[in-house]
Amino acid sequence: MNAGKQPILVVNQACGCTVTQVTEQFKSAGYAVVQSFDLLSAMDTRTRCICQLVVLLIYGKDGPPATIILDGNDMSTSIFLENEPERSFRAKFTTLLSPIAVTSDVNAESSSDESNDVEA
After folding, report:
1. How far apart, in Å, are the Cα atoms of 30 and each of 10, 52, 66?
2. pTM of structure
């Protein structure tokens, strides 16, 4: 689905956590967020899959929504901007989402520190 496209951000944390953070980040910035698809909820409960794909529609005050696709697993998530009604969305969204990358890097470091402590 996103073959050949470049993500606007890659986050080193589970997709589910990233979806929550992205949703909260957009809502706190005044956007309306609607989750229109979640691969895990669409799958048969007997199917085990480590991948996750979530589609969020991001509504501003005017115009059509932008589509954010989160494609990931338990380790990392790539965030794609599928359509942007205004060309300025890419810059706005990248700036808006940049704190998530910093937070996830800190979480990843503390998780690896904790796992190192457990092994010692």
Report:
1. 23, 26, 14
2. 0.71
The C-alpha atoms of residue 64 and residue 51 are separated, in whole angstroms, by 29
Cα 92 from Cα 41, distance rounded (Å): 30
Question: Which tokens is 116 given?
Answer: 């190192």
* 80, 93 contact by CB (below 8 A): no
Q: Which of 43-47, 52-56, 69-73 has the lowest mean pLDDT?
A: 43-47
Q: Is residue 34 part of a domain?
A: yes
Give me the CATH number covering residue 97. 3.30.310
For residue 68, is it within any domain?
Answer: yes
Beta-carbon-side half-sphere exposure of residue 78 (alpha carbons within 13 Å): 11
Whose tokens are 């790539």? That residue is: 78
Average pLDDT, the chain: 75
Give the total number of structural domains in the chain: 1
